[in-house]
Write a structure and sequence with these properties.
mainly alpha
């Protein structure tokens, strides 16, 4: 009687390779879920135009200072600062949100500089306010600094730690202002100086957009256009909220110079520019029928806002 022949078992090496392949596939899937899912969870670009209206202001304090502090705190604490995330955190793959966040902080930092130089001083003759000066310095800190640095100083202050301290500085200044222990000079010349600083900065943003349009319009996929667009967007959004708040801080000056209508149009233009948010930022040719140019659209509103800034400045100067 012939013996039955059993089928050969799979070679041990073949089974091992198949298992390793499945492990590798599972790891790749987990990495994709971790990064893509985590990035989607953290991604948030909040351009709510009404944000500043709900901010609490101490009686006798400055609404613009309160809005500046609340805006930075929102990005650092509520939504989490992602611009300095290391490679092993999922938000590391984001680029639009970090650009938006750093744009916001840059806009607030320009206001803090003006607060230090003019608004918190009596015609430049008084001593620099320590809280205003502290906030201005800390808001200039780069937004991409993590607390560990492999190439230079091993341990350093993180970006968000500096911004948290800047928020404390701004709120301490406002509390002192409410108690009559600090100065916020609501004079026309101070408002003019602040508007001139914003106008100069918007001019720089417009120039950067033009350079990107000029260099990237011939490229089908411009991977730098969206970063610039959202950096501008964050800066414009910060200015929109701060201008709306300054309109209340300087209500007496604006009413006295009969510039309320111009001011309202100015804020309206900044808000319109701040809320532009396409699904995909395109840097197409300016005369293209198929590909829009979102940098150009943003730049148009930015130039309109700059023109209106100088209109208000001219009226206030008279």
């Amino acid at each position: 009687m012939a013996s039955e022949t059993l089928p050969d078992a799979a070679p041990p090496r073949g089974r091992l390779l198949r298992r390793l392949l499945w492990v590798l596939v599972a790891l790749v899937a987990l990495v994709l879920v971790y990064y893509v899912g985590g990035a989607a969870y953290f991604h948030r670009i909040d351009d709510d135009p009404a944000f500043g209206r709900s901010v609490e202001v101490p009686e006798g304090g400055s609404r613009a200072v309160a809005v500046a502090a609340a805006l930075v705190e929102r990005e650092v604490e509520t939504y989490r600062w992602v611009a300095n995330d290391p490679f092993f955190q999922p938000a590391w793959i984001l680029d639009n949100m970090p650009s938006f966040q750093t744009g916001i902080v840059y806009g607030v930092s320009r206001f803090a500089v003006e607060l230090t130089d003019h608004l918190a001083r009596v015609r430049g003759a008084s001593q620099v306010d320590p809280d205003a000066d502290g906030a201005a310095g800390r808001l200039k800190y780069p937004g991409d600094i993590w607390f560990l640095e492999w190439s230079r100083t091993p341990v350093q202050p993180s970006s968000e730690s500096q911004y948290r301290r800047a928020v404390e500085d701004l709120r301490r200044f406002n509390d002192r202002l409410a108690r009559g222990q600090a100065v916020f000079e609501r004079r026309a010349d101070n408002l003019i100086a602040t508007l001139e600083r914003i106008a100069a900065d918007t001019g720089g943003s417009s120039a950067a957009s033009f350079e990107q349009i000029d260099s990237g319009a011939t490229v089908w996929l411009d991977f730098h256009a969206d970063n610039l667009f959202y950096a501008n967007k964050g800066r414009i959004y910060a200015y929109a909220l701060l201008l709306e708040a300054l309109g209340q801080d300087f209500a007496a000056v604006i009413g006295e110079r009969n510039v309320q209508r111009n001011w309202d149009e100015l804020v309206r233009t900044f808000m319109a520019a701040a809320v532009v948010q396409p699904w995909v930022v395109s840097n197409g040719a300016l005369d293209s029928m198929w590909r829009p140019n979102h940098l150009a659209a943003q730049g148009f509103l930015l130039l309109r806002a700059r023109f209106q800034l100088y209109e208000v400045i001219n009226v206030l100067t008279k």
